[in-house]
Amino acid sequence: MLRFNTHTRLLEPDEHYYPMQDVKEPNLFREIFCFNEIPKAPFNRRLTPMQPPEEIWITDTTFRDGQQARPPYTAEQTLHLYDLLHRLGGPKGIIRASEFFLYSKTHKESVRKCLERGYRFPEVTGWIRATKNDFKLVKEMGLEETGILTSASDYHIFYKLGMTRRQAADQYKSVVAAALDEGIRVRCHLEDATRADFYGFVVPFVQELMAMAKEAKIPIKIRVCDTMGFGIPYPGAAMPRCVAGLIYGLIHFADVPSEWLEWHGHNDFFKVLVNAATAWLYGCCAANGTLLGIGERTGNPPIEALVVEYASIRGTTDGMDLTALTEIADYYEKEIGYHIPDNYPLLGKHCNVTAAGIHADGMSKHPEIYSAFDTVALMNRAPGVMITQSSGLAGIALWINMRNEKAGKDQISKSHPALKKIKKRIDAEYARGRVTAISDEEMEAYCRQFLPDVF
Known about the structure:
- By secondary structure, the protein is of the alpha/beta class.
- Helix content is 39%, strand content 12%.
């Protein structure tokens, strides 16, 4: 039967039937994943149409996956970060949901505190293993949605679970059915989807889930998990590593609505952000991430990066409060005790700091020359200059003018005679073997000595 697809404006087959291939031996895709070699990137040159959904959004797993890579957050820390996520997401709730562990006393206290806030966004959701005992925790906490681990690759089904594909699917579906019976929305996490047999297991399993959702009249969301970071964003990449192909296939062959699809990636091969953006562009509404990208092993898409990517793709921040990002960075550094690398994009101490003299000279003439955007207006974060042996007179002049908020005719020129004396002191430091930058305190001391009328 044909139907007119209002999204593509084309007549398309209404049904695709892919039976579960309950194989006796696991399909490990050994020609791609050889284990004693770097995984190979196969191409079939089949181009998937780019079809971004009407809306895209961000979901958070800071308090689930993010806690698998660091000491657990306290309930108070969780609540503060949750408040900042709410602010960052803005009135439209661009950060749509946040998922939580439900196992320990601290987990449960954190969930209760966040629920008491009464925010619509991010919605507090759970995460459990595919067992009915774990499902009791969701009921106990009174949550309306929970994620369920539904491992998809034969690596997990055969070697971790010790099951056949059919047995695993039936086990997963029994827990999904229990949730639906209680009116709870389910989010099935297709663990290791980028090493899974897409047409032999993923599509038929998801088709069965969609049938369950239709009967229960309750959404069953599908989280596509790139657990080992194998996803490839390149056009013409072959399955199962092709991000575009995975999203397209779930929409067109398994009939999953875009708003029920979510991408969850890891950064093992440095593609965590581009893979999430690719999922958005090819029809997935939700991209899952963590604050600062902190997550198991190499981490997840950084929420701060997803925020920037959202604004870049959509052409608007849609009311997101980017000043919350600066407060998030400060909170991690000062209260949680997590050091953000100085050169970390957007939030690192030196992300908008220049050190080279030629850059400083350009900054002093026009800030847009070496600033990607107005960090003061968008993030409440002023650009800066770091004084090193490469800063030159231009860098020193820029440091002084920024420190004293001088503009226009009031600026100290790099030809000012006092600057040569300051530079001579700095050059002497490096001549003696110094390798670190000149601190702000040292610069202030030099300025008080040689520019007493300014300092």
